[in-house]
């Protein structure tokens, strides 16, 4: 990361369970950059990815990197499954990009929020900011149960962050 002029901002949190959100998600390079940041601070992380990412020849590597395949062609009650996983584990960190895709979206998906709220765990506000060449971890946000009000507060944190493809926002 240093070679390319990027730096990691923030440190490994001492919390044992949380949902890490990462925004803005505008490029295929977001994932490798965030992964490098996670590896640098030695965060034990799981992330969700479309099932096609887990096919040969890279499927085993994706799982080794903490990936969990998701079949997006059907409803899987993923929120409920993740809430149960949090309840069963003593330590669990799951990365969920709130946009749900790399393309421009009018509004964020809500699954990340309902996983955290349902499991009673905080959200760690992770980010990529191309304008400052930073990848980092901001504060924790504790869901109150009022999604609309909480989303406004969460998105205030991201207001000055620019994705790798600045035109995507």
Count the helices. How many?
5
**Gap between N and C termini, in Å?**
24 Å
Largest sheet geometry = 7 strands, mixed
Q: Over the alpha carbons, how many angstroms does the gyration radius reach?
A: 15 Å
Trace the largest sheet across and list its strands: 1-7-6-2-5-3-4
- Structural class determined from secondary elements: alpha/beta
Order of helices and strands: EEHEHEHEHEEH
**In oligomeric terms, what are we looking at?**
single chain
Strand tally? 7
**Uncertain runs:** none
Residue fraction in strands: 15-25%
The share of residues in helices is 25-40%
Mean pLDDT: 86
Question: What sort of overall outline do the alpha carbons produce when their principal axes are compared?
Answer: globular
Question: How do the helices and strands line up, and which of them pair or pack?
Answer:
Blueprint: E1 7-9, E2 17-23, H1 30-41, E3 46-50, H2 59-64, E4 67-70, H3 78-88, E5 92-95, H4 111-119, E6 123-129, E7 134-141, H5 147-158
Parallel strand pairs: 1-7, 2-5, 2-6, 3-4, 3-5
Antiparallel strand pairs: 6-7
Helix pairs in contact: 3-4
Short description:
The protein has 169 residues and is an alpha/beta fold.
Describe this structure in words.
With 169 residues, the chain is an alpha/beta fold. It has a domain at 7-11 and 19-48 and 74-122 and 141-162. The chain is 30% helix and 22% strand. The chain has helices spanning 30-41, 59-64, 78-88, 111-119, 147-158; strands at 7-9, 17-23, 46-50, 67-70, 92-95, 123-129, 134-141. A seven-stranded mixed β-sheet has the order 1-7-6-2-5-3-4, sandwiched between helices. Helix 3 (78-88) runs parallel beside helix 4 (111-119). The protein starts with 6 loop residues before the first strand and ends in an 11-residue tail after the last helix. The model has no long low-confidence stretch (mean pLDDT 86).
């Amino acid at each position: 990361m240093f070679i390319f002029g990027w730096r990691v901002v923030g440190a490994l949190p001492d919390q044992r369970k949380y949902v890490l959100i990462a925004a803005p998600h505008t490029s295929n390079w977001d994932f490798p950059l965030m992964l490098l940041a996670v590896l640098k601070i030695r965060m034990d992380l799981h992330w969700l990815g479309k099932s096609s990412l887990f096919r040969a020849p890279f499927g085993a590597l994706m799982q080794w990197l903490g990936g969990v395949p998701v079949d997006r062609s059907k409803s899987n009650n993923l929120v409920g499954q993740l809430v149960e996983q949090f309840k069963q584990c003593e330590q669990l960190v799951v990365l969920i990009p709130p946009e749900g895709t790399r393309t421009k979206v009018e509004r964020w998906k809500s699954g990340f929020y309902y996983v955290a709220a349902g499991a009673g765990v905080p959200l760690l506000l992770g980010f990529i900011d191309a304008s400052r060449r930073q990848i980092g971890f901001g504060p924790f946000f504790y869901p109150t149960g009022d999604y609309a009000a909480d989303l406004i507060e969460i998105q205030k944190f991201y207001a000055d962050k620019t994705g790798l493809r600045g035109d995507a926002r």
